C-alpha cells in the first residue's frame, strides 16, 4: 500500500519554496519511494511512500508509473490500493498503475469506470490531472485548489499543513455531523480549503487553466454507479440472491491473491458471514484466515458484554481460522485518537469506537496482513432493517419519502402498519 501526493502550479507560476520542505517533513525523506520534478523543478512534484513497512516484498498492486516526461501517451500514474477481477483467470497480474494506465489510454475516464477494487489513482499527462476513486470509497483522496496552486494527496494532514493554505475549520461540517444534517456538499471536510474526492468520482482538471479559490472551469465529473437487476427474476427473492452472489464474488476477489488475509470478526451477522465465506474460499487454496476480535478482559466485571462466545462459534465452523484476541479496556478514552481519525477521514467519526478500530488495524499491520476484511457498520447496509429510516425522514420533513419507506418495509419485511 502506498500513500501519494502531488503538488502543481499553474502556467507562469512556480511551486512555493516552502511546500517542498513541508512534503519532505511530513513523509520523511528516507521513506519517499519516488519523486519527480519537471519544468526545471519549479512547477510540479510527486511523491509516493509506504503506508507501513512490509517485509514480504512488493505486491503487484504497488505501483508508481514514472515516465521521463509525462505526456498523454505516457502519463504519470500514482496508485494506492488493490484492483480485483480485472485480469483473466490464469493471466499474470499487472501492477495497479499499469492497469490504470491501460484503461486511461483505452477510453479515458469512461474506461476507468470499468476497473473494480479498492483503490485511488492520480494521472497526470503534463497538463491534465485526473483524480479517481473506487465506488465504495475504501481509500481516501483529498484535493486543494487555491490561488492557481493544486495539491492532492491520500494524506489529509499533509494538505492541512501546507503553507499559504488557510488553516480554517469548516464549523458547519462539524456541527452537521454532530446533529446529522447535510448543509454542506458531501465532498466537504472539516478543513474549509480541503475537499475529498467522492466514492465513484473521477475529476479531470486542466492544470493550464485553474482559477483561484474555485474549481477549474473545465472540471469534469464522472460518477461510476451502474443500475443493477438480478439476472434471474423468477425466484422468491431475486434481489437477496443477487446481493448474496455479489457479496461472495467481492470477498473472493479480495482474498484470492492475498498473502496474509485477515478479517475483523465481531461475532455479529455481517462479519461472521464474511469470515466464513472467506475461510471457505481460502481452504480450497490451502490457506488460513486470521480473525482479529476486539474483546473485554477475561476478568472484566461490569455491565459491558462482548461477543467472544459468538466468535468462537464462527471459528468452530471452519478449521482454517486462527483467532487473535485484542483486549479493549472499557474505560479507554474514545477521544484519545481523535487527531488520528481526523487525519485519516478528514471528518469526525460517526461512532465513538474509532480508537478501537485503529487498535485493530495496528494489530493487523503487526501481523503482516495485506488484505483486511470487515463487516463494520454492516447493519447500515446488507443487514440493515430500515426501521429507523422512516422516523429520520419524518424529522427532516420528508413525508412522501417516509411513507414510501414504510410501504417498502411493510411489503418486504411484513412489518405491520
Describe the overall structure.
The protein is an alpha+beta fold and 417 residues long. The chain has eleven helices and 16 strands. The protein has helices at 19-27, 96-112, 156-160, 171-179, 238-255, 269-284, 308-316, 338-345, 354-366, 389-395, 399-413, and strands at residues 2-9, 34-38, 44-50, 63-65, 76-83, 117-124, 128-133, 142-146, 149-153, 195-196, 201-206, 220-223, 261-264, 289-295, 321-327, 371-374. Strand 8 and strand 9 form a beta hairpin. It is globular and about 65 Å long.
Write a brief structural summary.
The chain is an alpha+beta fold and 417 residues long. 30% of the residues lie in helices and 21% in strands.
Helix and strand topology:
Blueprint (H helix, E strand, L loop, with lengths): L1 E8 L9 H9 L6 E5 L5 E7 L12 E3 L10 E8 L12 H17 L4 E8 L3 E6 L8 E5 L2 E5 L2 H5 L10 H9 L15 E2 L4 E6 L13 E4 L14 H18 L5 E4 L4 H16 L4 E7 L12 H9 L4 E7 L10 H8 L8 H13 L4 E4 L14 H7 L3 H15 L4
Helix pairs in contact: 5-6, 10-11
Q: What keyword list fits this structure?
A:
11 helices; six-stranded antiparallel sheet
Amino acid at each position: 500500500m502506498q500513500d501519494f501526493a502531488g503538488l502543481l502550479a499553474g502556467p507562469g507560476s512556480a511551486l512555493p519554496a516552502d511546500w517542498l520542505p513541508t512534503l519532505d517533513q511530513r513523509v520523511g525523506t528516507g521513506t519517499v519511494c519516488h519523486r519527480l520534478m519537471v519544468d526545471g523543478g519549479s512547477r510540479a512534484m510527486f511523491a509516493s511512500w509506504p503506508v507501513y513497512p512490509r517485509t514480504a516484498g512488493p505486491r503487484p498492486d504497488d505501483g508508481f508509473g514514472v515516465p521521463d516526461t509525462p505526456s498523454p501517451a505516457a502519463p504519470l500514474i500514482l496508485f494506492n490500493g488493490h484492483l480485483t477481477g480485472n485480469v483473466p483467470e490464469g493471466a499474470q497480474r499487472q501492477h495497479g498503475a499499469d492497469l490504470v494506465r491501460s484503461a486511461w489510454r483505452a477510453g479515458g475516464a469512461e474506461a476507468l469506470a470499468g476497473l473494480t477494487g479498492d483503490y485511488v489513482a492520480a494521472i497526470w499527462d503534463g497538463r491534465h490531472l485526473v483524480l479517481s476513486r473506487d465506488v465504495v470509497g475504501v481509500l481516501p483522496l483529498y484535493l486543494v485548489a487555491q490561488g492557481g496552486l493544486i495539491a492532492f494527496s491520500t494524506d489529509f494532514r499533509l494538505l492541512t499543513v501546507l503553507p499559504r493554505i488557510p488553516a480554517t475549520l469548516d464549523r458547519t461540517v462539524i456541527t452537521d455531523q454532530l446533529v446529522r444534517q447535510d448543509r454542506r456538499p458531501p465532498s466537504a471536510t472539516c478543513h474549509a480549503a480541503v475537499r475529498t474526492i467522492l466514492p465513484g468520482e473521477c475529476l479531470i482538471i486542466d492544470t493550464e487553466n485553474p482559477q483561484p479559490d474555485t474549481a477549474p472551469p473545465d472540471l469534469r465529473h464522472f460518477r461510476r454507479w451502474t443500475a443493477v437487476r438480478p439476472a434471474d427474476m423468477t425466484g422468491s427473492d431475486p434481489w437477496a440472491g443477487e446481493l448474496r452472489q455479489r457479496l461472495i464474488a467481492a470477498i473472493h476477489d479480495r482474498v484470492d491473491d492475498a498473502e496474509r488475509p485477515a478479517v475483523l470478526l465481531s461475532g455479529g451477522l455481517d462479519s461472521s458471514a464474511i469470515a466464513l465465506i472467506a475461510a471457505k474460499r481460502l481452504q480450497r487454496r490451502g490457506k488460513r484466515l486470521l480473525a482479529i476480535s476486539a474483546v473485554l478482559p477475561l476478568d472484566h466485571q461490569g455491565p459491558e458484554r462482548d461477543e467472544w462466545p459468538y466468535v468462537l462459534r464462527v471459528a468452530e465452523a471452519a478449521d482454517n481460522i486462527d483467532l487473535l484476541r485484542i483486549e479493549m479496556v472499557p474505560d479507554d478514552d474514545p477521544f484519545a485518537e481523535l487527531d488520528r481519525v481526523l487525519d485519516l477521514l478528514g471528518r469526525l467519526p460517526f461512532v465513538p469506537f474509532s480508537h478501537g478500530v485503529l487498535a485493530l488495524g495496528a494489530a493487523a499491520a503487526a501481523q503482516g496482513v495485506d488484505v483486511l476484511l470487515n463487516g463494520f457498520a454492516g447493519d447500515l447496509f446488507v443487514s440493515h432493517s430500515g426501521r429507523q429510516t422512516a422516523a429520520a425522514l419524518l424529522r427532516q420533513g420528508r413525508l412522501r419519502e417516509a411513507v414510501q419507506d414504510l410501504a417498502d418495509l411493510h411489503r418486504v419485511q411484513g412489518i405491520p402498519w
